[in-house]
Amino acid sequence: MNKIWNQRLSQYQQKLLKYLRYVFNDHFVIALFFVFGAVCYGYFNFIDHYVYPLTVVDRVVAIITLMVILQIGKFATLLQKPDIVFLLPNDYRINDYLIKARHHSMTMTALIQIGCGLITVPFLVRVLHFSWIEWAVLLISQVLFKWMQLLFEETGLFDQKWNSSQMQFLKQGLPLIGIVGGILLSPWLSLGIAVIGWGSMLQLRKKASYHVFKWKDAIAAEDKRVMRIYKFFSLFTDVPEVHQKIKRRRYLDWLLPRIQQDSRQTYKYLYWRGFWRNSEYSGLFMRLTIIGVLLMLFINLKWVSLLIGLLFIYLTSFQLIPLANQFYDIVFTHLYPIKSSQQLASFRKILGTLTAVQALIFTGTLLIATHSLIAAVGLVIGAVGIELLLAHFSLNKRFNKGA
């Protein structure tokens, strides 16, 4: 079982590295550089100028932030669907396999909790007046609470008559009590609760090993975990493991152009329908627009906000270009008496409309955040330049090439 785990882990890491090369491409790295720098500048600028006395709202923000960070990361078993048949004879050795999985999951989640937890340190020190020992104890408690949740997930893979309400209390309620106690009273209280909870889950896990392992539930949970990662990668490149779901959204029919007796409107109608029904494109447009708006509101420096707006317009438009080839593999569309130039013109109009809508939203946000008319005009001019660049250069290279 140890050999199987090592092979699975190696294959899993190689696949992640393969997709990460597409995620951290030149365009995304440049955008990430500016966004990360702008967020850090805005965050530390906010902390340095925070002069309000300690309030209940500050404590609530810290509690919610730590609880959200605690939800990052799941127990990774790397089990696959054929295992329910081929590994069933080794069912009695599944605990050896899960020990390897537990160590891997605990290591990765500990790094995530510490990395994300360090982001909260300036807020804890500046606003909540924590000493370096107190925030270090709080981070250790955070890691122990996460390990407790991983043990809870691992224990749930065995067939036992658990009381669901009690188990949910152990998974979410106890960490919440510990974090609240650590923020409101003392981080040492949080550490004590974390140690007790972690020790209790270790004992429950040992007892669970004498029960039957639920192969179907374990494989389903792992598929769900991996699919979340693949869906993130699918925002940047084609991921064969992800099958996009097409949804019929009747409430968006009013956004579709009216069907006219004109062949020039055929692809315009198809592209709009494909955009709204395919969550890969419509969801991408919505998410990047919302993230861009939030960043521009958070960072009220006009030139930094201007750069963020242009970067998000570029990222959105660039990642919408594959929509131009969505119907290329459908043989019936090649029977339409429509020239490829008309199809390309239809897509350019749609890309231009979406760019204009996003630019309008970002311009309004920029005016609200900075009150700078010059920066708003610069955003509009930059958006026009980006749209012309992509629609007449990048689109020509990738149109009907399977890109």
Automatic annotation (TrEMBL):
It comes from the Bacteria. The keyword Membrane applies. InterPro entries: EcsB_ABC (IPR010288). Keywords: Membrane, Transmembrane, Transmembrane helix. GO terms for cellular component: membrane. It comes from Ligilactobacillus aviarius. The keyword Phosphoprotein does not apply. Pfam families: EcsB. The chain crosses the membrane at residues 20-44, 50-72, 110-129, 135-152, 173-198, 284-315, 350-368, 374-395. This is Protein ecsB.
